[in-house]
């Protein structure tokens, strides 16, 4: 998994090296059914094995099952060399893995195993294809811009959409390694459920109907670096149903929430998980195309709030502005006319305090990523400008619970930044009632856009769709 720290591209980051805690390893092996006598004479591989978190536990399970079956040490030694496989690109890590496997085997009195664990680039290895009973692991998460060999990655069909990531390629290779009754269990970013980059993979899984189980860890962080992850259990054979689990952080085990058909969780090409009833409602919201009782838009994007938003002494060419994320009012320099057209700079210069404010910050303003025809003294983007003289409601776009909602009336002549705003004929109280209900939190949690601190985020489109669906449900969609 790629560390999210800024700065130089370290070897760890380039190879996505982060290790999996023991309890997650056990969860994945259990969900795959790699336990008890089922493991005997079955091939298991971790094709990005690091120092062997998965393989050492696999060895322990194998040895335990062999002891229960009364298999001789000599035979057990041979079987470990034949059925346990690992690939790791980093030689040092590979050596550590071998040492850890020897240590695990020695605890069962087994020595001198000729392990099939070696250092190589998994993208170039095909000798396991179609042969593995179990493929397990925590594949490297390396974003496209950090990939050292992008050409090699581009050849894989799961890497064809959007800004790809190496873990998608490992899903493709892992599935290819399975034999006809094989099972794959990986922990990887949950963005796979709704990202553009995950599109090709989702299409493949939908075609194969092979998702046996999903454990969405949601906000829970089992790794040192922040990543929102999910465990997926995929099979070579199609599955009639998928079991959806959430993660019990105290017990450190997955808890089954629902048993779903593919049609329940595959919504407009993305995956969303929850109980069937909530997913049915989500499907209706996502496909709602009736009357628009509300329009939701993004607030100002000045691309330099510290210049445009402040508490200066001058009042000319300023408007009150609300920060959508906090509900706090401030003053905003607004160099536009009543129709949202940028004023000539000469008009602004006529106010001495304003002229000096501009003069002191020319470089700062010019450093913004502006379009070629965007004047340097205006906002960086045009969003929100033309609605200043309309009545609207500002709202935040990050929530954990109904109590986090910040909804405020903005009279004509005021602006919104760092948040969204709603244009509608409906009253503030009606909007508040809809957005303060637990059902709204359920909806945004199913969208799966996780943020740190336990927050969910949503876009203007997500909110607009929800409000319009809810008003239609109440028979108040503006049709009467
Ligand atoms: C997230 S770590 C997981 C390590 C181990 N499976 C675990 O769970 O603790 C991913 C590992 O993949 C290795 N890796 C990265 N690219 C690889 C490649 N192309 N072929 C093989 N291994 C690779 C990294 O060096 C790293 O050890």
What can you see in these coordinates?
The structure is a single chain. The protein folds into two domains: 11-274, Rossmann fold, CATH 3.40.50.150; 294-473, no CATH class. The protein is α/β, with parallel strands linked by helices. Strand 10 (266-267) and strand 11 (270-271) form a beta hairpin. A nine-stranded mixed beta sheet has the order 3-2-1-4-5-7-6-8-9, with helices on both faces. It has helices at residues 11-14, 22-32, 53-69, 73-83, 91-106, 150-154, 166-177, 199-208, 262-265, 276-287, 305-308, 345-349, 352-359, 362-366, 428-435, 438-447, 460-473; strands at 44-46, 84-88, 116-119, 132-137, 178-189, 211-216, 229-235, 242-248, 253-260, 266-267, 270-271, 294-298, 309-310, 318-323, 328-333, 392-395, 398-399, 407-410, 415-417, 420-424, 450-451, 455-457. 32% of the residues lie in helices and 22% in strands. Bound molecules: S-adenosylmethionine.
Spans of at least 5 consecutive residues whose pLDDT stays below 50 are 1-7
How many distinct helices?
A: 17
Do you know the CATH topology of the largest domain?
A: Rossmann fold
**CATH structural class of the largest domain:** Alpha Beta
Query: Portion of residues in helices?
Result: 25-40%
- Rg on CA atoms, Å: 28 Å
Number of domain units: 2
Coarse morphology? elongated
Spatial strand sequence of the major β-sheet:
3-2-1-4-5-7-6-8-9
Largest sheet: 9 strands, mixed
> How would you state the average pLDDT, rounded?
94
Supply the CATH architecture of the largest domain.
Answer: 3-Layer(aba) Sandwich
What is the β-strand count?
A: 22
């Amino acid at each position: 998994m790629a560390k999210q720290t800024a700065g130089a591209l370290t070897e760890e980051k380039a190879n996505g090296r982060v290790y999996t805690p023991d309890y997650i390893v056990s969860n994945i092996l259990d969900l795959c059914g790699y336990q008890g006598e089922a493991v005997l004479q079955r091939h298991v591989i971790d094709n990005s094995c690091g120092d062997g978190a998965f393989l050492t536990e696999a060895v322990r399970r194998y040895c335990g099952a062999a002891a229960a079956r009364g298999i001789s040490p000599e035979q057990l030694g041979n079987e470990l060399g034949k059925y346990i496989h690992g690939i790791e690109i980093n030689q040092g890590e590979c050596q550590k893995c071998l040492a850890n496997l020897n240590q695990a085997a020695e605890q069962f009195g087994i020595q001198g195993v000729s392990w099939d664990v070696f250092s190589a680039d998994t993208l170039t290895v095909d000798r396991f294809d179609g042969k593995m009973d179990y493929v397990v692991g925590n594949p490297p998460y390396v974003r496209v811009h950090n990939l050292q060999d992008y050409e090699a990655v581009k050849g894989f069909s799961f890497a064809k959409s959007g800004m790809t990531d190496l873990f998608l390629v490992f899903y493709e290779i892992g599935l290819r390694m399975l034999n006809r009754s094989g099972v794959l269990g990986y922990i990887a970013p949950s963005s796979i459920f709704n990202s553009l980059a995950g599109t090709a993979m989702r299409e493949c899984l939908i075609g194969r109907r092979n998702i046996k189980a999903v454990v969405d860890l949601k906000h829970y962080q089992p790794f040192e670096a922040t990543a929102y992850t999910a465990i997926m259990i995929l099979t070579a054979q199609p599955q009639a149903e998928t079991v959806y689990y959430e993660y019990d952080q105290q017990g450190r085990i997955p808890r089954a929430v629902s048993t779903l058909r593919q049609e329940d969780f595959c919504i407009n090409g993305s995956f969303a998980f929850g109980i069937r009833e909530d997913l049915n409602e989500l499907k209706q919201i996502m496909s709602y195309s009736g009357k628009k009782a509300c329009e939701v838009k993004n607030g100002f994007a000045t691309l330099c709030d510290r210049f445009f938003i402040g508490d200066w002494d001058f009042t000319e060419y300023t408007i009150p502005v609300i920060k959508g994320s906090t509900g706090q009012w401030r003053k905003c320099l607004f160099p536009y006319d009543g129709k949202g057209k940028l004023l000539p700079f000469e008009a602004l210069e006529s106010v001495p305090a304003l002229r000096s404010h501009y003069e002191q910050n020319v470089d700062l303003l010019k450093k913004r990523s502006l379009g070629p025809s965007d004047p340097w003294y205006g906002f960086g983007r045009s969003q929100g400008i033309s609605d200043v003289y309309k009545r609207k409601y500002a709202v935040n776009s990050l929530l954990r619970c109904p109590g986090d909602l910040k909804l405020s009336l903005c009279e004509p002549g005021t602006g919104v930044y760092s948040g969204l705003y709603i244009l509608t004929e409906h009253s503030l109280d009606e909007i508040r009632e809809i957005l303060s209900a637990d059902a709204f939190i359920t909806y945004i949690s199913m969208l799966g856009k996780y943020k740190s601190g336990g927050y969910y985020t949503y876009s203007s489109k997500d909110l607009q769709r929800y409000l319009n669906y809810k008003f239609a449900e109440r028979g108040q969609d503006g049709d009467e």
